[in-house]
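Entry:
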Amino acid sequence: MTQADIYLKKNEDKRLRKGHLWVFSNEVDTKRSPLEQFSPGDLVQVKADDGKVMGTAYINPQALVCARLLSRKPIKNNWHAFFKERLMTALTLREKLFDKPYYRLVFGESDGLPGLVIDRFDTVLSVQITTAGIELRKDALFAVLIELFAPSAIVLKNDNSQRQLEGLSQESEVAYGQLPDPVIIEENGAKFKIDILNGQKTGWFYDHRCSRAQLAGLAKNQRILDLFSYTGAWGIPAAIAGATEVTCVDASESALALALENAQLNQVDDRMRFVHSDVFEFLKNARLENHLYDIVVLDPPALIKRKKDFKQGYEAYRRLNHLALQVLSKNGILISASCSYHLSRENLHEILRSSGRHIDRHLVFFAGGGQGPDHPIDPALPETEYLKTFFCSVASSL
């Protein structure tokens, strides 16, 4: 099948030549290839100003990232074969990494499938499609998923702001099969009941798996404060590992209710307490009442979703880390994380340095982390690396 061409302006092919997969609308030579001639999801051949073919992409003329490369080569109109090859490649890596079927199966561009995220919860697949290009071909995608995994259910998690930017429906649904009740997954020696349809993102956050395991290794006989705890992914393995007390704080009552169920499922509810509160307010009150913890986990949601929100978000991260340090006991540990792509590792490093100095504490990093191996990083796409974590030992001033 012959695809239409889009031409890039002069010198706008440099990023693609280095391996990036995105074309921004202001990089397109719209005199040679007017964007309005295309419909969302159309397949196009991307060409440099000199006519050299950069690859095959799908396009959405209304989006800022107007084209995403699927291949450096021409793509035949056989989407079943295309999806099968990409999914088998992704599966091969995950099966090398994990001995149980609980992981992120597809991580967008890193797995050669821009606009697609799939989390595997044993026989249940939670699918997040964020672009018109994948949406248009989801029937072929589903056919391959059914062929390869024989799932009991495929859930479309469409409640995503990116879909709105692409002009797509935001209604989540069970698109295939019947969703088991309950859906229970395993991670770090713990079991968790998850709510896929009503939960955040795909229903679970696999990305912090390795850092949560590291916390469990530090948890024995410790009093732990888990901030933005969601459904207990940090706190419950810590309690299983021997923490004397775990306090989970979250602004969502439904998330805390599920966290309590998960604590009961793992028989550690006698050592856990669940506090429904705004985290800023909780920390202020804990400081005033001199409540101290041996380990504080600070894993907030993305506080900087867009570049223009950087200043306000940076200040929120600074305040949170400043307050968290003030409720640490002597020689305590702060685990500080950020999933905001726009807050760099260097930014978080500086926030921790300045916060420690401001309250006259000697803070050192003894470990660091990022997203788990089922969220692989494409070295040509910095956007695929978003998660950063610092393990900090905090002592009195030198």
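The chain has three domains: 4-71, 79-181, 184-396.
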